[in-house]
Amino acid sequence: QVQLVESGGGSVQAGDSLRLSCVASGSTYNRDCMAWFRQPPGKQREGVAKIDTLGRTTYADSVKGRFTISKDDAKNTLYLQMDSLIPEDTAMYYCAARPCYIAPLGDWQPYNYWGQGTQVTVSS
Questions:
Q1: For 64, which DSSP code?
Q2: Which of 71, 60, 70 is nearest to 106 (CA)?
Q3: Residue 31 DSSP one-character state
């Protein structure tokens, strides 16, 4: 089993920055691929950024150049640095994890484990 706990959300102004954190516990093998998703109000959940065990990253087009995903394996923590925030980034942000072998790196699904989410609100 894997447990994921996000933190770092909040309410900010457009142009501000936030850093989300996701502390992971449980089986390391089952969480060697990790990702951030978000669900804007009234919309479906979408992939934001993902990272594999070798540190290779993929970003959604909407956040490229503004968001950076990283991880600290010694701290069992996944991060999402969000810069130049815009109102369209307003959403509940979720951390997710899976064993890398279950899907190609390019696939945004499936992810087996999910955190409870942290809210990000960006006002203009």
A1: T
A2: 60
A3: G
Tens of pLDDT, residue by residue over 4-63, are: 999 999 999 999 999 999 999 988 888 889 999 999 999 999 999 999 989 999 999 999
- Residue 101 CA to residue 123 CA, distance in Å, equals 39
CA distance 80 to 83: 10
**Paired tokens of 23:** 């502390």
Going along the chain, which residue ranges are E strands?
Answer: 2-7, 10-13, 18-26, 33-39, 46-51, 57-59, 67-72, 77-82, 91-98, 113-114, 118-123
Residue 81 pairs in a beta bridge with 19, 68
Nearest partner of 124 among 93, 85, 91, 67, judged by Cα: 85
pLDDT tens, position by position, 75-119: 999 999 999 999 999 999 999 999 988 888 788 989 999 999 999
Residue 118 contacts residue 18 (beta carbons within 8 Å): no
Residues 6+ apart with CB under 8 A from 26: 1, 2, 3
